[in-house]
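Standup notes
- DV: blocked on the single-chain target, sequence here:
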Amino acid sequence: MVYLASAAPIPLYGIYRAEDALSYTDLSLSSVFYFAGAVSALVIFGRLSNHFGRRPVALLSVAMTALACLLFFNVHSATPLLAGRLLQGLSCGLASTALASWVVDCASSVPAWLSPAVLSTGPMTGLTIGGIGSGFLVEYAPLPRQLIFMIVIALLALCALLIIKGTETIDAKPGALGSLKPDLKLPATARRAFPLAAVTFVCTWSLGGFFQAFGPAMAREQLHSASALAAALVFASIMAPGAIGASLAGRTHAVKAQRLGMLSFTVAVMALLWTLDMGNLTAFLIVSVITGIAQGTVLAGSIQTMVSDLDITERAGVLSVIYATSYTGAAIPTLLAGKMSEHFSLLSVASGYGVLALAGCAIVFITPLFSRNHTTNETC
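- DV (later): unblocked, structure below
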């Protein structure tokens, strides 16, 4: 629900640009503020749920999301948009550790692949529902600037009630203030898997950040549709299929899912750029769905390489590192893309993400070869 709310403003970006004269830089900064808020919450507050419990931190996340929705009621300049997106980032960062850890805590009686699948695709599923729902309401319902946020606030109230009734899995303990000191250390098992996993997080999340900031602009300028619903579909097409990819990853070994997923993702991104150049909305959406499936596969595989066999007290910290890496990897390219959009076409800017995917794929496949050769030489 928190991630659903974070996608709600995106279909309105076209209205903000047309009616309120917000620039592409303003819109890209809104995504950067969102990512910065998420990283701050992960790095500083990522371990709070180990001390206060999962439930109180989850409730705080829901409350901050509701406050952000109130700010979006009256967006006519960049200030309330940036403030609201910052709050949404903070709330998503808290949810990424408290709620995600809660999911893993309660997953002992379900298949081993299920919790990584939920962790990797839950945010994307929420973003998809929020984006499409908002796009539909903006296009066809009254009060296009406010109605979606009224509905989200009502749903958040329901979520708060469900959280209150949930079973707490962590006993409160002292040391909360000490936990605010950034500590991104990883257990040995997660540390070994982190470098390659980080590459995949950056490559996949950065493309998601581009879709978040420039989805409406791509729909309008490259794909020739000014519809808010089309803008929402462009954004959702790469987010929703991640659940399919995650379920596919659960049927194979984590490392294999990571490598095959990254290869498929890279090929799909190349095809995505081709359809964007063609200007065909239907072809673009089809290829974007394929890209989303590949993205879900590589993310689920990479997360599984890091979270398997962790102690319950290690999960929140590891998840903080995973999501902090992902959000940072999305924020920096989005900031650069916003600056580049002032001088280059959206297609040219998007091509940079193709280069990033190619580089990431090469690293994922070549690095293990060097490691294997190094191990062989030491043995000899």
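- Follow-up: The two ends are 55 Å apart (CA to CA).
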